[in-house]
Amino acid sequence: MLIQVENLTHIYSQGTPFEHVALREVNLEIAAGERVGILGPTGSGKSTLVQLLAGLFKPTSGRVLLEGESIHGKEATARRLRLQVGLAFQYPEDQIFEQTVFREIAFGLRNLNLRRTEIEARVNWALEMVGLNPAAVAQRMPFALSGGERRRVALASILAMHPRVLILDEPTAGQDSQGRRALLENVGRWQRETGMTLIIVSHALEDLAVLVERVIALKEGRVVADGPARQVLSDAPLLLDIGLDVPEPVALLQALRQAGKNVRVDCFLPAEAAAEIARAWGLQEIVS
Ligand SMILES: Nc1ncnc2c1ncn2[C@@H]1O[C@H](COP(=O)(O)OP(=O)(O)O)[C@@H](O)[C@H]1O
Ligand SMILES: [Mg+2]
């Protein structure tokens, strides 16, 4: 198993009046090459979980293993393991330090003993992956970019490292819908080409619907569901219980079913719902 999370509990500011339990006894396993979504409302512990997966700080208790070795263990081992996991933060401001976009993305690459031409090629590739034009942005200051552009630069700097495990925390926040779709398509294509493991945190169900095969749902720091994306994303009682909206296509199909129509309800993409409605009404020209 690539990633094993065992009894992971994290308490911020333990022993102070600000003590807050962010994760409670989380157990999960992720196999190499899986595409996993982490779903949950704000405050449910998603960012804490992925930061622990990336080894950014130590959990209060429990373990994260990468191929059987603790990512929070002996420093040399932990450093080697952490290089294999790339996390694009939810707040890119926390991740950007350099004076130009080029230097920002090249930063991690310099430690990999790559040739200058290889570094340039990877920077350009990574910028294109996130939908930015290298010629237009490479020499700009990251802090002069819009929030959405900065998020893309932060993501490009992670992609450029070619991590085995890519973790994206709310990657489409602050992007328009075309930009979102292009970004998700590029990441999805890259995942298929490389077979890397992909973990995406989002509270946007439609982002997860197009990209992942499995969804883990968190509520108040606990795993409350872990299953095929289709099943979890169309589980209306579960979604309402954890405080998320039911996808509109699912809600529509449920209303039809309550009205006595014999339709499936696990169609969370609009085109799928349309095909299901066409089938139930015998509108063959739409189905085909
Ligand atoms: N550095 C911190 N200190 C204290 N509490 C924190 C800190 N970071 C997060 N929390 C709290 O932990 C809980 C989980 O946070 P987080 O993992 O960021 O959730 P999510 O990403 O699902 O919104 C929230 O209630 C949040 O307020
Ligand atoms: Mg978060």
Essential attributes:
alpha/beta; 288 residues; single chain; 4-stranded antiparallel sheet; 6-stranded mixed sheet; binds adenosine-5'-diphosphate; binds magnesium ion
Give a description of the structure.
The chain has 288 residues and is α/β, with parallel strands linked by helices. It has a domain at 247-288. It has 13 helices and 10 strands. A 6-stranded mixed beta sheet has the order 6-7-8-3-9-10, sandwiched between helices. Strands 2-1-4-5 form a 4-stranded antiparallel beta sheet. Strand 9 and strand 10 (222-228) form a beta hairpin. Helix 3 (101-110) packs across helix 4, helix 3 runs parallel beside helix 6 (147-159) and helix 11 (248-258) packs parallel to helix 12. The longest helix is centred in the middle third of the chain and has 18 residues, at 177-194. The protein starts with a strand and ends with a helix. The structure holds adenosine-5'-diphosphate (ADP) and magnesium ion. The site of adenosine-5'-diphosphate has 12 residues, from strand 2 and helix 1.
In short:
With 288 residues, the protein is α/β, with parallel strands linked by helices.
Widest sheet: strand ordering? 6-7-8-3-9-10
Number of helices: 13
Structural class: alpha/beta
The rounded distance between the terminal residues' Cα atoms is 41 Å
Order of helices and strands: EEEHEEHEHHHHEHEHEEHHHHH
Strand tally is 10
Helix content: 40-55%
**Which residues form runs of ≥5 with pLDDT under 50?**
none
Largest sheet: number of strands, sense, barrel closure: 6 strands, mixed
Q: What's the mean pLDDT score?
A: 92
Question: What compounds sit in this structure?
Answer: adenosine-5'-diphosphate, magnesium ion
Q: Rg, please?
A: 21 Å
Overall 3D shape: globular
Strand content is: 15-25%
